[in-house]
Amino acid sequence: MKNFITRAVSGVIFVAIMVLGMAVNGVAMTFLFTLVTTMTVWEFTGLMNEHHGCGVNRFITTAAGGYLYLAFAGFCSGITPPVVFVPYLLTLVYLFISELYLQQPRPIDNWAYAMLSQLYIALPLSMINVLGFTYDTVEGLTRFTGMLPLCVFVFLWMNDTGAYCVGSLLGRHKLFARISPGKTWEGSIGGGVLVLLVAALVSRLSFVDYPLSLVQWLGLGLVVVVFGTWGDLVESLLKRTLGIKDSGKILPGHGGMLDRFDSSLMALPAAVVYLYTLSLL
């Protein structure tokens, strides 16, 4: 009972911070997700160093991930030119060249996990800027539309909620027993149905100012469900490979940063591709 209360309280606080960070303005979202990006990259590189015996430079790699997010925020909001990405590219070059002089026993692993932290975490989280900042061709201005990235996260949360409730009651057939024995087809379908219902509701809400039809909202919900589930499974594979239950302990009752944002690491890029396909970004 105590663990349930702890989990519930920390969950409510987490959701409140996320909602405020995306709903207030672009500055709040930038601050929030720069923090999320750096904390998640730091956690990931720490796991690799601890469980794989690597020597990834956590400080430089984490700083690079945070800078990449800020660079995307500046570029997508129209504040900075494309040259803002040059320092990031130079940092990646440094991470490669530095291994020539550090004499680490496993330099290839250091390269691999440092770059993986950028590809798996920093770049996908940076895509929230593509969703949050849109260029208005009529007015010639960049607008912040925090409701769109917030809806993506709401879909992810509803998918998790629906999958857990339906799976607990009706789950019989394993979705991916080799990687995540607790997930079932029934739960996944239940989560997907709940997301489609929420997407239909979102399409009717006047304060969600984004030009998507009902069918397009349903399509976005389906994309988030499918890729969010894959994102969850990818992190489950990572933890199973490392032999750990949670990626960290920063969120009481919920594990680490990767545990909380695993689904979004696949869902955010997929949402961007989906909306670009519809020519809405």
Number of helices: 11
**Could you estimate the helical fraction of the residues in percent?**
over 70%
Quote the average pLDDT: 92
Main sheet makeup: 2 strands, antiparallel
Strand content: 5-15%
Taking strands numbered 1, 2, ... along the chain, how are they ordered across the largest sheet? Answer: 1-2
Secondary-structure-based class equals: mainly alpha
Distance between the termini: 45 Å
Low-confidence stretches: none
Number of strands: 4
Basic shape: globular
SSE arrangement, N to C:
HHHHHHEEHEEHHHH
Q: Using only CA atoms, what is the Rg?
A: 19 Å
Please summarize what this structure is.
With 281 residues, this protein is mainly α.
Structure characterization notes:
This protein is mostly helical and 281 residues long. It is built from 11 helices and 4 strands, in the order H-H-H-H-H-H-E-E-H-E-E-H-H-H-H. The protein has helices spanning 2-23, 26-52, 58-76, 86-102, 107-126, 128-132, 147-170, 185-202, 214-242, 257-261, 264-277; strands at 133-136, 141-144, 174-176, 180-184. The strands form 2 sheets. It has a two-stranded antiparallel ribbon. A hairpin with a 4-residue loop joins strand 1 (133-136) and strand 2 (141-144). The longest helix has 29 residues, at 214-242. The N and C termini lie far apart (45 Å). The model has no long low-confidence stretch (mean pLDDT 92).
